[in-house]
């Protein structure tokens, strides 16, 4: 039984008979073992596996815990446990109850949002400040959904950003039209999954006798209300307030802080034995994190008593000297590459260390920052694939046609709706068998000056200008070519789109679909466009070597995507795996390059934390945009506690490119690694001045 492997504190928590339990599990104290032990206790006491809900921060974590349960109770029992992220569990329930769910990632829906936003004009308002751009307004709206449970978006804008009050009615109308479009086309983003699932929980008993929540400190207000709405007979939450690092995504540390107040009869358990790090590493982490307010008291005890190496401070005169020197240290170490992590706070830091490692032919893999699935070329392939499976996915169409020269998201939306009109509800009928009796398929725009809506549509254009482009005769008869703003380049893009989907018709294997899309003329155009953009110099010319390297990287990504598609035989399953599971997948092998957020929950024998300069880590810019020094300190704590045996903390004194001097990170002073000099006093004074201003 898994309970037999627990220490006394873990055992008491795992076997608790109380209805609500909060387990404060600091880094390396065995929270996973405690959760597995708890599930074992439930199963051993007659609770059926399907009556257990396990909510985790990643699907990978859920799979690992279920696998450990299977070691004791068998795969048949373990597989019946409902386990996954908030979003994955919500998705399964919605799919089960409502049938087809068209899930879209938050970033991808920005394309649809922009298509609405770009129709607006703010010029008639005459305000002194600049209105928000479409992308930023989308991010604000997403944050609003995660954190605000009562106010309307317009009222929230006015209260939170009073200087934008004049624009609030337009912002809110953009949001309303965006939501109406999502509803019309059946799109759901990650927030919608939780909102819809919460509505289900209000009216339906899901049959769970216990809900276990991992990484409870990172829940946001929406997730918190979802748990409350479930109102399970037994609640088992595991987390550590010192590792709450997702405030930028709406995570609310007060949720874990107020657990004992919300549930007066709850028991708070604390796991104090650290099994991961050596005494010097844990001492350094504790010394720094204790500058934050203590929500629940805890005193960690290190169980590893063997001789250990003290954390090492690395100081370099220049920024890039640091990257090259660390790469050289990694080349010289005896630690296997897979057991080494370089942890960064900013993407620019990762770029520097990656270059340093590549120059020495040291293999590395990067997670955090711009991931494989966030790259525009991979998203383009998946957008093509999505339209094959679901032609009603207007957002994928818009996202693709933004690549065409001269087509923005608003015009792409017009073309999509026109094709749908020509095909009586089907864009592919509109493309291949249009109703030619419809002379003008383009919708008339509504006008409303107060909401920033103005009519700028022109008369229909002539298709004769495309006669010499070699288009198929049947395609040349399509009324879609009458769009007045369609150029020869954008019409060619549309024709290539036409040719691709004709070739994809009837293909059943996901791997074959990926290969055909990657080999198509339209994707080659996209790859060339992206590579030109990435290789463009300041004077506008193209560095051909950089372009060739970029095209090679794109080809490699296509090969990897093809590899990922191999196990799948159904289009839906492949697409859902790419959308829901993409954040858990990494590529390559070698040294692990990790953003602090991506390092969460992982551990390595040897860890380097780089660019520990004030301004970079802590990141002062992000602090000014709603972050806090406490949050940055928690990020530092998470970074340090990834190390098991060897820890290097690194900083540079000067950047020769930007010609700026650096001051060591405040956390290095707090750790006692740098003497508290005048520079430190200046940092502290800066914090005091900020507090007084607030």
From TrEMBL:
Binding residues for ATP: 25-32
Listed PROSITE patterns: UVRD_HELICASE_ATP_BIND, UVRD_HELICASE_CTER
GO biological process: recombinational repair
InterPro entries listed in its UniProt record: DExx_box_DNA_helicase_dom_sf, DNA_helicase_UvrD-like_C, DNA_helicase_UvrD/REP, P-loop_NTPase, UvrD-like_ATP-bd
Keyword Isomerase applies: yes
Span of domain UvrD-like helicase ATP-binding: 4-278
Top EC class for this record: isomerase
EC id: 5.6.2.4
Keywords, comma-separated and alphabetical: ATP-binding, DNA-binding, Helicase, Hydrolase, Isomerase, Nucleotide-binding
Domain UvrD-like helicase C-terminal: 279-601
Transmembrane feature ranges: none
Entry annotated with the keyword Disulfide bond: no
Catalyzed reaction equations: ATP + H2O = ADP + phosphate + H(+); Couples ATP hydrolysis with the unwinding of duplex DNA by translocating in the 3'-5' direction
GO CC list: cytosol; DNA helicase complex
Cleavable signal peptide: none
Family, per entry: Belongs to the helicase family. UvrD subfamily.
Protein's UniProt name: DNA 3'-5' helicase
Source organism (scientific name): Sulfurimonas gotlandica (strain DSM 19862 / JCM 16533 / GD1)
């Amino acid at each position: 039984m898994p309970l037999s492997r627990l220490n006394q504190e873990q055992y008491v928590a795992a076997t608790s008979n109380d209805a609500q339990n909060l387990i404060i599990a600091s880094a390396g104290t065995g929270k996973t073992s405690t959760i597995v032990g708890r599930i074992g206790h439930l199963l051993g006491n007659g609770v059926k596996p399907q009556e257990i809900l396990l909510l985790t921060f990643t699907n990978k974590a859920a799979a690992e815990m279920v696998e450990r349960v299977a070691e004791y109770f068998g795969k048949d029992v373990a597989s019946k446990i409902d386990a996954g992220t908030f979003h994955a569990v919500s998705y399964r329930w919605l799919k089960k109850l409502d049938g087809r769910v068209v899930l879209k990632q938050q970033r991808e829906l920005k394309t649809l949002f922009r298509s609405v936003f770009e129709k607006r004009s703010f010029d008639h308002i005459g305000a002194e400040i600049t209105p928000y751009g479409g992308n930023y307004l989308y991010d604000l709206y997403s944050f609003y959904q995660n954190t605000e449970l009562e106010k309307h978006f317009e009222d929230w804008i006015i209260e939170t950003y009073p200087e934008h009050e004049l624009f609030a009615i337009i912002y809110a109308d953009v949001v309303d039209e965006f939501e109406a479009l999502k509803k019309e086309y059946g799109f759901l983003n990650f927030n919608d999954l939780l909102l819809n699932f919460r509505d289900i929980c209000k009216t339906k008993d899901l049959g769970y006798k216990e809900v276990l929540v991992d990484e409870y400190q990172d829940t946001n207000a929406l997730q918190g209300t979802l748990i409350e709405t479930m109102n399970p007979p037994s609640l088992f939450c595991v987390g550590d307030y010192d590792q709450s690092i997702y405030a930028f995504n709406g995570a609310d540390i007060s949720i874990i802080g107020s657990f004992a107040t919300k549930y007066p009869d709850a028991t708070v358990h604390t796991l104090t034995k650290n099994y991961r790090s050596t005494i010097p590493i844990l001492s350094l982490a504790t010394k720094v994190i204790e500058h934050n307010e203590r929500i629940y008291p805890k005193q960690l005890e290190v169980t590893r008593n063997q001789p250990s190496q003290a954390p090492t401070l690395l100081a370099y005169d220049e920024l890039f000297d640091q990257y090259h020197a660390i790469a050289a240290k990694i080349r010289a170490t005896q630690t296997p590459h897979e057991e080494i992590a370089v942890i960064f706070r900013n993407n620019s830091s990762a770029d520097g260390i990656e270059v340093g490692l590549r120059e020495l032919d040291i293999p590395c893999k990067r997670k955090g920052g711009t991931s494989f699935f966030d790259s525009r070329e991979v998203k383009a392939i998946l957008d093509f694939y999505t339209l094959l499976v679901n032609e009603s996915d207007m957002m994928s169409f818009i996202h693709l046609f933004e690549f065409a020269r001269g087509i923005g998201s608003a015009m792409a939306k017009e073309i999509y709706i026109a094709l749908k009109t020509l095909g009586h509800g089907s864009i592919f009928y509109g493309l291949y068998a249009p109703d030619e009796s419809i002379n003008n398929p383009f919708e008339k725009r509504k006008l409303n000056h107060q909401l920033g809506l103005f009519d700028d549509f022109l008369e229909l254009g002539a298709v004769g200008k495309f006669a010499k482009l070699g288009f198929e005769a049947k395609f040349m008869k399509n009324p879609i070519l009458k769009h007045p703003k369609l150029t020869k380049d954008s019409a060619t893009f549309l024709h290539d789109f036409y040719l691709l989907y004709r070739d994809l018709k009837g293909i059943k294997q996901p791997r074959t679909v990926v290969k055909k899309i990657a080999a198509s003329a339209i994707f080659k155009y996209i790859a060339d466009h992206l590579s030109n953009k990435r290789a463009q110099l300041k004077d506008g010319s193209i560095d051909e070597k950089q372009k060739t390297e970029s095209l090679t990287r794109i080809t490699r990504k296509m090969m990897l995507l093809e590899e990922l598609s191999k196990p799948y035989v159904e289009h839906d399953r492949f697409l859902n795996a790419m959308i829901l599971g993409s954040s858990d997948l990494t590529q390559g092998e070698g040294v692990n390059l990790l953003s602090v957020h991506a390092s969460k929950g992982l551990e390595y024998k040897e860890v380097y934390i780089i660019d520990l300069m004030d301004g970079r880590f802590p990141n002062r810019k992000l602090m000014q945009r709603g972050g806090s020094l406490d949050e940055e300190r928690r990020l530092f704590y998470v970074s340090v506690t990834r190390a098991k045996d060897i820890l290097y903390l690194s900083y540079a004194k000067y950047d020769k490119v930007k010609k700026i001097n650096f001051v060591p990170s405040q956390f290095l002073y707090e750790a006692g690694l740098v003497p508290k000099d005048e520079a430190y006093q200046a940092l502290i004074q800066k914090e005091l001045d900020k507090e007084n201003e607030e």
